[in-house]
Amino acid sequence: MEIIEKALMQYGVREIVGRKDHPQILAYFNALGYDGAKLHDETAWCSVFVNWVAKECGYSHSGQLTARSWLTEGVTAKNPDLGDVVVLWRESPNSWKGHVGFYIKESKNHVYLLGGNQNNRVCIQPYPKNRILDYRKLIKNG
Fold first, then answer.
1. Model pTM?
2. pLDDT digits (tens, 9 = 90+) for 45-59
3. I want to staple 3 with a disulfide (CB 3.0 to 4.6 A). Which of 83, 109, 129, 138 is the partner?
4. Residue 111 burial (CB < 10 Å; 0-12/13-18/19+)?
5. How far is Cα 127 from Cα 110, in angstroms, rounded to an integer?
6. Is 6 exposed, middle or buried (0-12, 13-18, 19+ CB in 10 A)?
């Protein structure tokens, strides 16, 4: 199954406010060897979502919770294609913080990502292009 198809099957999965956690978000953590019950659905989960989708589809994945862990996964894509990984900086380009999602399209000033933890849910959302650190083309395992 292709990456975008798999990710779209999760469209709309969202955090549950309060003490309860969305079981599917916990499943993303658990599938990567993290204990979702200890991390909860309020833990930053954009990288976990991208990892889960990539792993489920048989692609290389970082296995890490941080968005910037994707900067060394796969190879740089000069001209991104649908489903390539996009790594963004958050707060400042030199911060350790970031965001990661799958490339959908771009406009003059924005890149549109399908990702997790975008307004606390899986959805497609625009981000300013000036926040892009890299486009990454994942490698199929095997």
1. 0.96
2. 999 999 999 999 999
3. 83
4. buried
5. 5
6. middle
